[in-house]
Amino acid sequence: MNIFVGSLPFSIEEADLRESFEAYGAVDSVKIITDKFTGRSKGFGFVEMPNDEEAQKAIDELNGATVQGRAIVVNKSEPKPEGERRSFNSNSRGGDSRGGYGGGNSRGGDNRGGGNRGGY
């Protein structure tokens, strides 16, 4: 079972997280998500446990537990359906690129010019 772990202290290491979950059973993998530019923890991660019963017990007992002074969030990780993934195409901010004074602006909205306040 893939388990989401949130509200992690930024200083926690993967080995520490693994140790917390190994108290409930075997752990296949632990991954704390980090910022790709700074390398700093984003405060959440994932733990993979092969036995669903052990994983559920870990979720039940660790959700809300205090780790290094922070109450962590632990629940079953559900993958997003493929259609809900965010796309990063050129029009991903919601602007209408069909023309007008403000079409395709970065504030979203329609083509009535609400986002671009410059001259003509």
TrEMBL record:
Please indicate which superkingdom the organism of origin belongs to: Bacteria
Biased composition, Gly residues: where in the chain? Answer: 97-120
Record-linked Gene3D superfamilies? 3.30.70.330
List the InterPro entries.
Nucleotide-bd_a/b_plait_sf (IPR012677), RBD_domain_sf (IPR035979), RRM2_NsCP33-like (IPR048289), RRM_dom (IPR000504), SLIRP/GR-RBP-like (IPR052462)
Keyword RNA-binding listed? The answer is yes
Q: Show the segment(s) annotated as Disordered.
A: 70-120
Listed A to Z, the keywords are:
RNA-binding
Q: Where is the RRM domain?
A: 1-79
Give start-end positions of Basic and acidic residues composition bias: 77-87
An example Gene Ontology molecular-function term = RNA binding
Q: What name is this protein filed under? A: RNA-binding protein
